[in-house]
Amino acid sequence: MLPGDYVIHTLIGHEGSISCVAFGSRALVTGSEDRTARVWDLATGLVVASLEGHEEMVTSVRMFEDAEVAKVIPGMVIWRVCLIVYVMCLL
């Protein structure tokens, strides 16, 4: 760490290495070798949702805070996590 840097939260939950990350204004999404994606609340550091059921490791995630932007793309799955967050994972 650099001088003046400090840890705000340590995110604990994945059982494998994290392979991808996406940031939003209030949340963080991580994809992992454990075949899950997780949505984290940036204010608390807690898991908001664990997105399970992927057959392979999650290699790409993208978060949308607008339903109009979250278009269906072949090879992707869209998760509606809550009223304002949608997560796209590469299958």
Automatic annotation (TrEMBL):
Pfam family, one: WD40
WD repeats: 11-50
InterPro entries named in the record: WD40/YVTN_repeat-like_dom_sf, WD40_repeat_CS, WD40_repeat_dom_sf, WD40_rpt
Top-level taxon of origin: Eukaryota
SMART domains for the chain: WD40 (SM00320)
Keywords on record: Repeat, WD repeat
PANTHER family, per the entry: F-BOX AND WD REPEAT DOMAIN CONTAINING 7, WD40 REPEAT PROTEIN
Protein name per Swiss-Prot or TrEMBL: Uncharacterized protein
Source taxonomy: Eukaryota, Ichthyosporea, Ichthyophonida, Sphaeroforma
